[in-house]
Amino acid sequence: MAKNYIKNDEPKVQKYRFYVQILFVIISLWIGYEFILFTSFLESGGATTFYERPPGVEAFLPISALMSIYYFFLSGNIHPVHPAGFFILLAIVSVSFAFGKAFCSWICPIGFLSEMVGDFGDRFWKKLFKKKFKMPRFLDYPLRSLKYLLLGFFAFSIFVSMTELSLKYFLDSPYNIIADVKMYYFFAEISQFSLIVIAVLFVLSIFIRNFWCRYLCPYGALLGIFSLLSPNKIKRNEISCIDCNLCAKACPSNIKVDKIKTVISDECSTCMSCVDVCPVKDTLSLQFVPKKKKVNGKYVLAGILAIYFGIVGFAMLSGNWQNEVSKEQYIIHYNQMNSIGHPRSTADIERLNKEAMK
Ligand code: SF4
Ligand code: SF4
Prior knowledge:
By secondary structure, this protein is mainly alpha-helical. Helices cover 61% and strands 4% of the residues. Strands 1-2-3 form a three-stranded antiparallel β-sheet. Helix 2 packs across helix 7 (164-172), helix 6 crosses helix 12 and helix 7 crosses helix 17. One iron/sulfur cluster (SF4) binds next to helix 14.
């Protein structure tokens, strides 16, 4: 290791990333609280005060949002049932185009929870075995492909199997309209089996950092693909690098940052942990590759927030945030909710739509 080098005195980004993560956790909790009030109105059959359904809940319906985007692509129309979901997914994909898979490490509340559990797990392992646990490579690679298999299944079901008409039928269907309410009751009245699955994932995340995100999340897989197209990449200056290995040790995605010149990986979440720990000035940085220009951490922060809230703000101002489902329609669908299953075919979707209109 070289003895003399200019110390990296750039401001660290992790503190700001943490604030952004907390901001999105608070937004998610607020949406959850408002949604509980909305469901209490539905439970009363419309007898109590009406609470507006928070459109932000559609962030938790990514498959429906993906269908909406494909429907827009085919028809040129924004489907009116979950327009907020359409714009939120658009915002998340745009963030990925600009700053890689930054959604996972800056915005996603599940990613934040996973990071907290992973930090706890690292401390636990270090205390017991003096080092972090790492999944052996021969298991890591096949497991990482699982999320792509899940994504492939959804992509095939939507982009190959569905036409503009069948997409419209699905998006209009009572199942899609009430999907957020169904999702709420899935968690509010969680079955023993689902609870066991969540507990297993939680425990696995203590031992294997980001278990859900790294191996199973199809959302992360989708964003990982878009992130490869991002012009901003982590770059290492091989000349000034002192081979201290701190960047690789800090990387939550187990990327060997200290051995490569440019990080081109679907697992890099632009968390900037590696950049923050690098002790040598101008050695590791996020760079706008086409211009070979360093991107300062504060621009990453400002860029992520500007893209995300810019697109969400546009949706709100252009009247594409609230959906067009009336409270009376919600009450009807709520009362029939237990008999509304996932449509299996276009004919099935058509039949459900007709029944709902009777
Ligand atoms: S390479 Fe750097 S920015 Fe990418 S995930 Fe690893 S630590 Fe984060
Ligand atoms: S790039 Fe990585 S290995 Fe090189 S000096 Fe920075 S932290 Fe150390």
